[in-house]
């Protein structure tokens, strides 16, 4: 099975037009990057890159595959961004019990709701009675 990681190594090689620069960017050895691209080509049954000692160029198939890999990369980034944003959204009901005269809480909650919309509050005011001895 072809991994997305291998596809992204290929994208990096094409972006930098160099196995060496891609390896540096990915913190991998040049031989490892070359091996990954070769394995990808074997899995696909088609050459992606024309290699010479001085340059790299995409084959016709490689250019089409590269475009699809970029689309996959964009979708993966969007999915990750959406997931991170969804997990950091704060929502729910805030329940506050206050004594009479604690109106400062109302101001604090107002500021909170302005900064973090999509929440609600319930107040339960309690009258505190002091017993005289």
From TrEMBL:
**What protein am I looking at?**
Transcriptional regulator LysR family
> Which taxonomic lineage does the organism of this UniProt entry have?
Bacteria, Pseudomonadati, Pseudomonadota, Gammaproteobacteria, Vibrionales
Q: Which Pfam families does the entry mention?
A: HTH_1
Query: What species is given as this protein's source?
Result: Vibrio maritimus
Q: Which InterPro entries does the entry link to?
A: LysR-type_TF_proteobact-type (IPR058163), LysR_HTH_N (IPR000847), WH-like_DNA-bd_sf (IPR036388), WH_DNA-bd_sf (IPR036390)
Q: Which PROSITE patterns match?
A: HTH_LYSR (PS50931)
Q: Which domain of life is it from?
A: Bacteria
Name the protein family: Belongs to the LysR transcriptional regulatory family.
Q: Which UniProt keywords apply?
A: DNA-binding, Transcription, Transcription regulation
User: Which GO molecular function entries does the Swiss-Prot or TrEMBL record give?
Assistant: DNA binding; DNA-binding transcription factor activity
Q: Which positions fall inside the HTH lysR-type domain?
A: 2-59
